[in-house]
């Protein structure tokens, strides 16, 4: 029996799936200016929730315009913690273990340095080459800045798609201070078993830091159940917080007063408004803040996260698995014969919510899709067309239409009009 047996390759079938989708109504929570535009880039920049428009209008006109500095005591000062508490519900942590602050890269820097200083006798850091470049750069620079006493081991993915657990088991040893990985890999979508990997690192005596950028809001995460030590993640992808929205960080409660923040700004100080000149870190998660929080965007993050909480992570995951499986079935039927290769794991348990398809003309196809086919995927070197499924607003017909248009771009030689020079932002 072919793996595709349960699918029918008609548009009516896609329409029927949307009709039966219990989450279909959530699409209405988002601003959709052009219903014919197929947006499959919610894993780079999520759509704008309608309630965010209202929140930001209230923010600018009333909170900032009228209330002015009084607003700091009317919700602004507490916004990083309050929003963190909501993100915590999405990622399986206690409310006082998550805070929304700074960028993912900055948070990674703070937590990695804090972890290394907490484990002064261990001199090895382990990561893999599926990790996001920013993470690797920061690890390299931390090693340089700490006097090159650390050895950074970057495990090589044998297939460019996933990393076998055995590789990690053999790399993480008694000398390892920290294992840090992207939970879901940004290119292939490969997703680690957080509980199992955390446990094997703990057995070797290492701490683990998870980068949740491509999994938060896409797959259910259980930081507490997994015994996770540290995590960071961004809010402009599946959490729909808008461009440049602040990131979140998680520190297991039992570690919070043992780790120290290497960028000890005044927002990390206990009683910051006492303006004491001796640094005394806050006893709670606020000790991992730096300076003034990005208040306006915190209100956008809060609104975006609320929509996801209302839909529920389990239901979102069920829809995401169903949609990515459907996309793979359509790929096999129509795109594989045209030279598109599946560059994401086939097994749904091993992947997040995006699918990468490689094609030797990937860049030209990507441009043709954006320029004249009304499909927005994104592109990741060397030849990956990355299709992000955001189950909160992506419809089955969107997936169906995207595949039809990806087929047409090749069968009608439409991509040949475009150069293979890369775009600045994809
Ligand atoms: C998107 C992404 C980042 C982005 O970091 P910023 O500091 O927010 O720019 C970091 N890590 C991973 C895994 C990502 O996917």
Can you describe what's shown?
- The chain contains twelve helices and 13 strands.
- The protein has 426 residues and is of the alpha/beta class.
- A seven-stranded mixed sheet has the order 2-8-7-6-5-3-4, sandwiched between helices. Strands 9-10-13-12 form a four-stranded antiparallel sheet.
- The model has no long low-confidence stretch (mean pLDDT 96).
- The structure holds pyridoxal-5'-phosphate.
- The site of pyridoxal-5'-phosphate (PLP) has 13 residues, from helix 4 and helix 5.
Compact description:
The protein has 12 helices and 13 strands.
Q: Could you list some keywords that capture this structure?
A:
12 helices; 426 residues; 4-stranded antiparallel beta sheet; 13 strands; 37% helix
Number of strand elements: 13
Q: Indicate the percent of residues in helices.
A: 25-40%
With strands numbered from the N-terminus, the spatial order across the biggest sheet is 2-8-7-6-5-3-4
Question: How far is it from the N-terminal to the C-terminal residue, by CA?
Answer: 38 Å
What is the overall silhouette? globular
Share in β-strands: 5-15%
Count of discrete alpha- or pi-helical segments spanning 4 or more residues = 12
- The whole-number mean of residue pLDDT values reads 96
The biggest sheet, with number of strands, parallel, antiparallel or mixed sense and barrel status, is: 7 strands, mixed
The distinct bound ligands, ions and cofactors come out as: pyridoxal-5'-phosphate
Poorly predicted parts: none
The gyration radius over C-alpha positions equals 22 Å
Structural class: alpha/beta
* SSE order, one letter for each helix or strand: HEHHEHEHEHEHEEEHHHEEHEEEH
């Amino acid at each position: 029996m072919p793996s595709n047996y349960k699918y029918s390759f008609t548009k009516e079938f896609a329409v029927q799936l949307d009709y039966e989708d219990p989450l279909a109504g959530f699409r209405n929570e988002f601003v959709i200016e052009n219903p014919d535009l197929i947006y499959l880039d919610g894993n780079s920049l999520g759509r704008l929730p309608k309630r965010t428009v209202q929140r930001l209008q209230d923010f600018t006109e009333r909170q900032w315009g009228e209330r002015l500095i009084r607003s700091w005591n009317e919700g602004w000062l507490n916004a990083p913690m309050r929003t963190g508490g909501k993100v915590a519900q999405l990622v399986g942590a206690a409310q006082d273990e998550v805070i929304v602050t700074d960028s993912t890269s900055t948070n990674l820097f703070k937590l990695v340095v804090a972890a290394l200083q907490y484990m002064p006798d261990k001199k090895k850091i382990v990561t893999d080459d599926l990790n996001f470049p920013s993470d690797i750069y920061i690890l390299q620079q931390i090693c340089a800045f700490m006097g090159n006493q650390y050895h950074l081991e970057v495990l090589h993915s044998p297939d460019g798609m996933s990393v076998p657990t055995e590789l990690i088991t053999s790399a993480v040893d008694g000398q390892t201070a920290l294992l840090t990985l992207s939970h879901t890999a940004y290119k292939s979508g490969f997703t680690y078993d957080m509980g199992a990997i955390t446990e094997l690192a703990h057995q070797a005596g290492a701490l683990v830091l998870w980068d949740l950028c491509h999994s938060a809001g896409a797959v259910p995460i259980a930081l507490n159940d997994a015994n996770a030590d540290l995590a960071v993640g961004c809010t402009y992808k599946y959490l729909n917080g808008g461009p440049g929205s602040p990131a979140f960080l998680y520190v297991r409660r039992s570690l919070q007063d043992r780790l120290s923040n290497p960028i000890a700004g005044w927002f990390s100080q206990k009683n910051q408004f006492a303006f004491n000149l001796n640094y005394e870190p806050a006893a709670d998660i606020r000790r991992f803040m730096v300076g003034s929080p990005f208040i306006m965007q915190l209100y956008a993050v809060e609104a975006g996260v609320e929509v996801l909480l209302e839909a529920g992570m389990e239901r979102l995951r069920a829809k995401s698995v169903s949609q990515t499986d459907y996309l793979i079935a359509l790929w096999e039927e129509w795109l594989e014969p045209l030279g598109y290769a599946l560059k994401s794991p086939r097994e749904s348990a091993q992947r997040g919510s995006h699918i990468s398809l490689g094609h030797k003309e990937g860049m030209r196809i990507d441009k043709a899709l954006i320029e004249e086919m009304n499909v927005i995927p994104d592109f990741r070197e060397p030849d990956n067309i990355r299709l992000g499924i955001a189950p909160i607003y992506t419809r089955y017909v969107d997936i169906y239409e995207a595949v039809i248009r990806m087929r047409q771009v090749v069968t009608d030689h439409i991509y040949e009009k475009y150069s293979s020079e890369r775009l600045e932002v994809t």
